[in-house]
Structure formats: structure tokens, C-alpha cells
Amino acid sequence: MKPRLPRESDFRGAAHSPRVATRVGLALAVTFGLCFLTGLLSHLIQHPPHWFTWPSRPVSLYRLTQGTHVISGIASIPLLAAKLWSVYPELFTRPALRSATHALERLSVLALVGSALFELVTGLLNVTQNYPWPFFFPPVHYAVGWIAVGSIILHVGLKLPVARAALAPEHPVAPVGTTVSRRAFLRTTATSTGVAVLATAGATIPALRHVSPLKWRSDQGSRGLPVNRTATAAGVVAAATDPDWRLEISTPAGTTSLSRAGLAALPQTTVDLPIACVEGWSRTATWTGVAFTDLLHAIGARPGSEVRVSSLETTGIYSTSVLPGTHTADPLTVLALDLNGAPLDLDHGYPCRVIAPNRPGVLQTKWVSRLETA
């Protein structure tokens, strides 16, 4: 007897029922939606359009939003696996294409699965700073995120009648074969998601650091503060340790040069602020240096002025940053000279670096060489 290809009707396990697929899909919509919205917010903060403003307070808001971005992405991984398991028998639907609507549905599923897998896999590699691809991660991750969300919206619209029927009280329970029951499958999915979150959330939630074995980078680096990019990797060691280093401060009235000793002679401010990185890790530290409000006053500029910050690292899109007026007017925004009671070391930005409340770590420019105000 000639073997035949499987058919959708051959998969009778409760885990493949529309009810299970819909419930897992709802959970995935929540986690993936959170991940997309917080990722979009992070993109706007780093590349702000003219209409967008980001406050300096509360100081840990970005820590919360970016931590949510990464944790919700991790939670989406087991949920996506469970969703794919629940619906994969539909691959064996015959005929393969029943109508134009069915073809559109299958196309949306292809775009959804491909883009979602790309986002979650590359995002997971990004938090561990592994980049086995030739492209620059942020813009590609951002663009594919829109593809994923668009395909999700299209898929939900096409599947809404099925989802409503699946969640209706009178919907019959799918027959149970030799596989696990519907409730057992959902409990296993929920447990797996919870374990994944708990195992990694310590990277961004201090209270969970001792119970998160897979946390990344939250306690590495000198003085317990992680370092994403070293001075050696940035190629700034010689320039940063040059005794003739001076900070140039340019205003419409002229240019001022200050040595590190000159900066230390100005009024000093000590603040406790977190470094919150786009990879999701965060760590609070004590920083001492010159508050931008005092520094701008000292050079005859107005606090609240936008300041362009340039680094000794002259290559890459983060070699410069812009401090908005909301941050330069905040007394917690500091040009830091010391970290946790000792002078900055090279990897943490010596001779001086920016530390501002509620800012992504990539915008907390290290090895500062020049400040410009309009």
C-alpha cells in the first residue's frame, strides 16, 4: 500500500485545537506587542524626530521600558514555539490553497513566522553581544519589527472569526488523542515562559539578580559596572591618557578649553544614577563630576541649551550624541570624573563622560572631547 502524505485531520491532539492556538496567540500578542512598543520608544529616544521629547525624570523610566522590551521578547520565545506547535498541522491542509483569502492568510503566516523568528533570535543574540551577520543590527531589527507587526495585524484580522468561535463557551473541546491534554499543554507553556523570564530578568531587575542564572552583564566589569565597549576597542587609549588632553567647549561667544584638573576645580556634584543599556541590563552607580547646569553657567551659556557631545572615538554612529535641553537643565545631568568614589578608569570613559538621568547607555557618551552649544 502506497504511503500517503499526512492530513490536517490526522492530528487530533488537544494541543492542536483552535482553542489552544487562540489562547497562546493572545498571550503572544501581549508579549510581542509590549516588545514592539517599548522597542519603538527606544528607537525614538535614540533617533528623535522633531516632534518627540523624552523627559529626564523619573530617572529609571528608560531602565523600566527597555527592561520590559527585552524581558517581553524573551517571554515571546516559548510562547511562539507553543503557538507554532499548536498550528503546524495546518501545513497539511488540502487543498493547499482554497481561495484568495486563504492564500492571503498563508502569506501573512509566512511573513509573521519569518519576521517574528528573525526578531526574537537576533534580539536574543544582541543581548549577549553576538553578531554573526554582516548587517548593522539596530536599523534592520527596527525595520523587520514593522514587518512583524503588520503581518500580525493582518493575520489577526483574517483569523478573528476563528478566534471568536474558539473562545466561545459552547465551542466543543477537541478530541484528546495520546498527547497531553489542553490544560496540561497550556500549563507547560505558562511554566516555560515564567522560567525563561525568571532566569533572565535579573539583568534588569536588581531584586532578581541572585535567582537569575542566565542574567547577562549586570555584574561584570570593573567596580561591578558592565562595559560594552572598551577603550582599546574604541581606539582611544592614547588620546584619553595624553597629558595634554583638554575638553573643548564651544559656545556662540567663543571656545573654552579645560583640563581634567580644571574640571575638578569647578563645583562638584554627586548623583546615584543607573546605566541602562539597550541590551536590557542596568546597574546603578555613584557618579561625581560637574553638573551641566554649573558647567554651562561657568562658560556663560544657559542651562536648558541643547548640547552636542563629541567623543575621542571618532567612528561609529555613537561617536556623538545630543543632550536635549530637558537634560542639560536637570541638575542630575553630570559630566562625570569619578565613579563609585574613584576616578573613572579608561573603560568607563576617562578622562570624562556624560551621565544623565533616563537615557540609554549608548547616549551616555564616554571619552568626551568636545561640547558645543548653539
Automatic annotation (TrEMBL):
PANTHER family: BLL0505 PROTEIN (PTHR43032:SF2), PROTEIN-METHIONINE-SULFOXIDE REDUCTASE (PTHR43032)
Signal peptide region: none
Source organism, top-level taxon: Bacteria
Membrane spanning residue stretches: 20-46, 66-86, 107-128, 140-158
Pfam families: Oxidored_molyb
Keyword Membrane: yes
Gene3D superfamilies cross-referenced by the UniProt entry: Oxidoreductase, molybdopterin-binding domain
Organism lineage: Bacteria, Bacillati, Actinomycetota, Actinomycetes, Pseudonocardiales
Keywords of this entry: Membrane, Transmembrane, Transmembrane helix
Taxonomic source organism: Actinokineospora auranticolor
Domain Oxidoreductase molybdopterin-binding: residue ranges: 241-372
Protein name per its UniProtKB record: Molybdopterin-dependent oxidoreductase-like protein
